[in-house]
Amino acid sequence: MRFHVPFRRPGAVGRLTPLRVLILLAWSAVFVPRTLQSLTSPKFRVGVGEGLPYTTLASLADRGLQLLLILWCAGVVLSRARRLPDTNLAALAVMLLPWLYLTSRDMLLQSFPKPSTVVYGVVVVAVWVLQPRLEALRDVAILTVLGAGLSLALAIVLPSQGLFTDSGGDAIVPEKALLPFGILVGPFTSGNNLGQVLAAGVTMVALLPRRWRVPAALLVASALVWTSSRSSLIAVTVAFLVALACAAVAPAVRSGLAALAGVLALTVMTVTPLVTRDDLAFTNRGFIWRGSLDAWAEDPAFGLGSSWYSRVGGSSEEITATAFHGHNELVQMLVTGGWIMAGLVLLLLLQAIVVAARWAGRGAYHPLALVLVLLVTSTFEVSLGFVDRAFLVPVVALPLAIVLLSPQSRPDPRVVAEARRPMELTSVPQGWR
What we know:
Layout: H1 18-40, H2 56-79, H3 89-108, H4 115-130, H5 137-157, H6 159-162, H7 191-202, H8 210-227, H9 230-248, H10 251-275, H11 281-296, H12 308-312, H13 329-362, H14 366-377, H15 393-405, H16 413-419
């Protein structure tokens, strides 16, 4: 069964475009500081509020790359200030409103924006200005493969840094481990975090040249299995099976099947924490959900602010030492921003499902796979952050912005006619496009 990309644009494959620089900077801002930290400081399991501070070198890289990313996005917007797009304004608003609301909500708590807080907003606006084509997601796939290779190399060469270890440097092998020699964390501090990154990024591997797709997928899959992140593995499996199902049915029903799959995944994500009564369910997530929702009841409309989990970490209000977040997208949004935040995020996710289904109807399934991975992993983790979870920007927020804000995503008859001509992917966007 063949998967093809139903559009094409001529151009030089190796050209360093502004969008490509943005993608590379976003990836570097996540991986470079964490890799330097892994190479220059001990790394072991910690609880909420106990994280080891960055070394001087890692801290400089973190701040410098975040600032460079923000400046680059600002430069992109300013360079096009006199000819800003007039399309996809509704999609842009849907993507920005949760970030604007939560940032404003935090400022009321005297928590003013930091560079990491600003990243989501400036990246989304820059992507909108650049009006990218979907082929740009190929660069995300390449960097995902690079990240998987880096993680595997770190675990093999420096196991105490690339595997989940305790303060003595010994590998931690919990019951959930799928392999007998530990849990892969790579440059991160958690196998689940690395799993989320790899699961989202692998959905775009189909955009690579045909001869590289299988080796790249196997490399990422090997790293993903080693993370023992069950939610990420389930998400990738669901996305793959749904994509196969959509490819097997008649074109006339592909969009409907894709939308149904997306709505079901969204329903499971929202309902699961609300109906779970067992505190031990889903590796103690039931306890985290119940404690989080009890705390949210203090301010149902506006929530408790994005820093609530870190604020209560180590205090008498702490839920558990491993509750760095709500371990569910709906729970996280309710606790941090209340009903308002949850409504805005659900609107964004519904928009993503609609656009992904539209693409599935045209024969392109990687947007659908990305959205399904986001929804399934968000059932047990937080895969879409707005003022936090910055490590997911390169593989979730940025690709999602490309999918929703691409001019190809509009239901324009001319675009649909072009998309229905199956063509091989041979290029990336040119110039400021």
